[in-house]
């Protein structure tokens, strides 16, 4: 998960009243039972970021070997390839530098995405979304978080490319598409209305957003745009009454990102349907107890 600026949502001030009115439109989330073989479901964060380099094949294999779903992050390269990486830039998690959307896929594919964590992971690469889906959706459900395009770029291209990768892998019934950006989810709905969508949100405490933008997003005032089937909420904001209210409305509730055993117990006691965690191995043990 990320608290970085949510590009594509501005300007909101002029449309705030219209947005609030649109939020009153009735919405019935669709069934997601096939995506949740167990409840609560454990979902590895960026594969299994506490056990292997995030968003790499090594991390995805850890999650799949544990038999749990996993989440990953997607943005586009300069030539429009859906790249599995969390940040806008290559700097933190690879031996490259610069923005992902300014680099060609052929160059990104040559970078090392493991040594940033430990030398023993040298040789891990930045994956393509399509390759990950082909390998792992026959085994587990994959939660695709689509990052907001930089510099207020429109969301249509990244949504179209992600849906094309899903279709190339034949994985529409084995994925969940999520985003902090309701307009990204709206674009996904246009290209693949049958794919289940999840609205990511939280306190947005550290996000570079205006107070009214945080309020709109935190209170799901753009749900009529995203039309989500699941709500993927920051764990710290969840309370029993809130979870019960949203579940009564038909939503599945997934909590992010929960790495402390006591916090896992707290959100499970509320009745959440899923836990996103860097340590899926720990979550399985907590749930077993």
Structural summary, described in words:
The protein is an alpha/beta fold. It has a single domain (30-288), classed as TIM Barrel, CATH 3.20.20.190. 32% of the residues lie in helices and 16% in strands. The chain has eleven helices and nine strands. It has helices spanning 16-22, 57-66, 105-108, 129-136, 156-168, 182-191, 211-218, 223-226, 240-248, 261-270, 280-288; strands at 41-44, 69-76, 82-84, 142-146, 175-179, 196-201, 230-234, 252-256, 274-277. Strands 1-2-4-5-6-7-8-9 form an eight-stranded parallel beta barrel, surrounded by seven helices. Strand 4 (142-146), helix 5 (156-168) and strand 5 (175-179) form a beta-alpha-beta unit. The longest helix has 13 residues, at 156-168. The mean pLDDT is 92.
What is the count of β-strands? Answer: 9
Range of helix content: 25-40%
Say which CATH homologous superfamily is assigned. Phosphatidylinositol (PI) phosphodiesterase
Our measurement of the CA-to-CA distance between the termini, rounded to an integer number of angstroms, reads 27 Å
The number of helical segments is 11
Instruction: List SSEs in N-to-C order.
Output: HEHEEHHEHEHEHHEHEHEH
Largest sheet: 8 strands, parallel, barrel
Strand arrangement within the widest β-sheet reads 1-2-4-5-6-7-8-9
Give the overall pLDDT as a whole number. Answer: 92
Spans with pLDDT under 50 lasting ≥5 residues?
Answer: none
Estimated share of beta-strand residues: 15-25%
Shape: globular
Number of domains: 1
Rg is 18 Å
CATH class: Alpha Beta
Going by helix content, strand content and strand pairing, the class is alpha/beta
At CATH level 2, the architecture is Alpha-Beta Barrel
**CATH topology name:** TIM Barrel
């Amino acid at each position: 998960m990320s608290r970085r600026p949510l590009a594509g949502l501005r300007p909101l001030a002029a449309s705030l009243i219209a947005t609030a009115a649109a939020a009153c439109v009735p919405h019935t989330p669709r069934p997601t039972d096939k995506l949740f073989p167990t409840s609560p479901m454990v979902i590895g964060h960026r594969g299994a970021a506490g056990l292997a380099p995030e968003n790499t094949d090594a991390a995805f294999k850890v999650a799949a070997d544990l038999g749990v779903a996993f989440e990953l992050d997607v943005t586009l390269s300069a030539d429009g390839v859906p790249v599995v990486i969390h940040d806008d830039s290559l700097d933190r998690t690879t031996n490259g530098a610069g923005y992902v959307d300014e680099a060609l896929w052929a160059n990104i594919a040559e970078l090392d995405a493991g040594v940033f964590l430990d030398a023993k992971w040298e040789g891990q690469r930045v994956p393509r979304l399509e390759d990950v889906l082909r390998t792992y959706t026959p085994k587990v459900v994959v939660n695709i978080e689509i990052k907001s395009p930089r510099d207020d770029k429109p969301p249509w291209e990244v949504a179209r490319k992600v849906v094309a990768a899903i279709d190339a892998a034949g994985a529409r019934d084995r994925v969940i598409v999520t985003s902090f950006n309701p307009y990204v989810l709206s674009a996904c709905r246009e290209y693949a209305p049958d794919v289940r969508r999840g609205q990511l949100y939280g306190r947005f405490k550290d996000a570079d957003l205006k107070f009214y933008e945080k309020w709109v997003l935190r209170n799901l005032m753009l749900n009529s745009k995203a039309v989500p089937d699941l709500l993927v909420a920051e764990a710290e904001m969840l309370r029993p009454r809130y979870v019960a209210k949203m579940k009564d409305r038909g939503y599945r509730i997934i909590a992010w990102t929960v790495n402390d055993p006591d916090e896992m117990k707290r959100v499970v006691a509320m009745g959440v349907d899923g836990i996103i965690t860097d340590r899926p191995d720990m979550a399985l043990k907590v749930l077993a107890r």
